[in-house]
Amino acid sequence: MRGAVLHAPGDVRVDNRPDPTIEQPTDAVIRLVAACVCGSDLWPYRGIEPIDGPTPMGHEYVGVVEEVGSEVRDLRPGQFVVGSFFASDNTCDICRAGYQSRCVHAEPMGAIGTQAEYARVPLADGTLVATPGTPSDDLVAGLLAASDVLGTGWFAAVAAEAGPGRTVAVVGDGAVGLLGVLAAKQLGAERIIAFSRHGDRQRLAREFGATDVVTTRGDEGVAEVRELTGGLGAHSTIEAVGTQESMMQAIRATRPGGHVGYVGVSHDVQLPGAELFFSGVHLHGGPAPVRRFLPELIDLITSREIDPGRVFDLTLPLDQAAEGYRAMDERRAIKTLLRP
Ligand SMILES: [Zn+2]
């Protein structure tokens, strides 16, 4: 089969890779209907995260079940399925508490590489959620978003306790931040302040429910949020970047007693203890347990209540994966959808 492989920084190729097979009785093999390039794929693409030789890429996916192992009970060939970037059994104590991305048997789908024609999905019953029937083609992008960026933005909004009567600030205008706006709106937030310096992203943020846009960042941006909130700061802040600056911006934009939901993958973030102590904010986040939210998100998407697929502003055939990476790296695209 064909699949995207990162050979060196900036060098993505679509190579012939071995066809996946059932390796464990709990596996399924799916035929990918769509996959995409994640902001986190850009870390190794830019050489910031080292790779150890040619590396299959991709961890977001929707597809059709081709084959299931002998112990798979709930899935059958032909079903359209959505999964998250961690395979999980969905039965251990951690999963049942809603933290499937930290399942005691979690396996990263990034190690499998879903920017491909086919993929093996471990722990298929726990990992995959079937849609009601085969969705129409215009729903595929939204369902693909649920696989990571929507599920992650949703978790950030839940972790930040976004809800009725709350003012939510969103740090980060990539796909996760934008869908954090959508999630906060859906959860009933009264006011949503998006940080963004890019016109196209500001427009999408407003369409997803942002009531205010702040174009400055760092302490200047924090001062603007305070000004908009009677000097107090937001009740809830979503952090969707993962740098020192963005994390401190999120903590400082939040009022005492408020909540920060952080989902940007941390790159060398160090929290100053004394400032954290006196901030009085709750911090909760990490790799989003997307699987917890998939059934609800699939319902909202297939009933057309939300349209998270609009974050994809570039669609390419899988064979042009290299251009998909370049466009995101150069910020010409928010998010690239790949069609195998
Ligand atoms: Zn588990």
Description:
The protein has helices at 42-45, 93-96, 124-127, 140-146, 149-159, 175-186, 199-208, 218-228, 244-252, 273-279, 290-302, 321-329, and strands at 2-8, 11-16, 28-36, 55-56, 61-68, 80-82, 86-87, 107-108, 118-121, 129-130, 167-171, 191-195, 212-214, 234-239, 254-262, 282-285, 314-317, 336-339. Helix 9 links the parallel strand 14 (234-239) and strand 15 (254-262). The strands form four sheets. Strands 3, 5, 6, 9, 10, 17 and 18 form a seven-stranded mixed sheet that branches. It has two domains: 2-148 and 289-339, Medium-chain alcohol dehydrogenases, catalytic domain (Quinone Oxidoreductase, Chain A, domain 1); 152-285, NAD(P)-binding Rossmann-like Domain (Rossmann fold). The mean pLDDT is 97. The chain has twelve helices and 18 strands. The protein has 340 residues and is an alpha/beta fold. The N and C termini lie close together (10 Å). Zinc ion binds at residues 88-89, 91-92, 94-95, 103-105.
